[in-house]
Amino acid sequence: MRQLFFFLLCPIMAFSQSLFVEVNTLFESKSYVKAQALMETYVASNPSDIKGLELLGDAYGYQKKWDDAIVYYKKLVDYDNTNANYHYKYGGALGMKALSVSKLKALGIIGDVKTAFLTAAELDPEHIDARWALVELYMQLPGIVGGSKKKSLKYADELEQLSLVDGYLAKGYIYEYDDEPELAESYFKKAIKVGGSLTCFQKLTDLYENNKQPHKAVANIEAAFEKHNRNALHYQIGKVCADYNIQLEKGERCLKEFIKNHTAKDGVPIEWAYFRLAQIYKNRINKTEALSWIDKAIATRANFTQALEEKEKILKL
User: Fold this and answer.
1) Total-model pTM
2) How many other CB atoms are found less than 10 A from the CB of residue 266?
3) N or C: lower Cβ tally within 10 Å for the chain?
4) How confident is the model at residue 14, as a pLDDT?
């Protein structure tokens, strides 16, 4: 009898697994609305399927439908209170909800956010994402409602024990947030030395730009290019050169290289490169070339607000 029951279940299990694979593929392609529709239909017929509930919550979360995501992530926590990832997802959705409402309403949510992340960290001593969430939460909260640099550093230390790169990045984040750029720089450099990912380089580049150190930013992006050889880094160099009116020849060369090799994988629409070239020529007081490039940007995207505003500035040269 047991074998017969399992045999009858097989088609249902195969269908659900196939659906879940399809939904994850939709997530990867950012087709969140379609994924939501599929999971809503599935969950309506299978209200106790925990994986279905999780994927439906994820579909809502990807679309920033926090109220809906909270409902389904809470079902996960109620189903299995010992699952760290369920608490982490629930806390994350609550946290994003808190950011989208008034400060007064957010105060009523923060306690549950903190509890969810702390529970996730306690349940899983190796849960990196939960510890990252606590690092950011304790830094961003005002002291009057529980914010604490000391507690944030505690979880950064725990991250460092689990992953040197994450620990260094977390400490870089803390010191940058606390307006200690020299310390932040030292930890981001450590992260680059140990991990060397594009994320590590980007954190240091952002720090330099935020502290108006464009020459250091350009040098860091060039170092990232030597390691990763990504075309998008050509754009980043051109952007910094255009924004800060420095190394204009290098900026022009990099932007033209970016345009020459541009693909959708670069993640930056090509009209932004046209826009930055227009800025570079505007900085050189070359009105004709600046207009030529800004017109290309507008021709590519007619509602390109920044380009339309930039054209007005160029016309005044």
Assistant:
1) 0.85
2) 17
3) N
4) 45
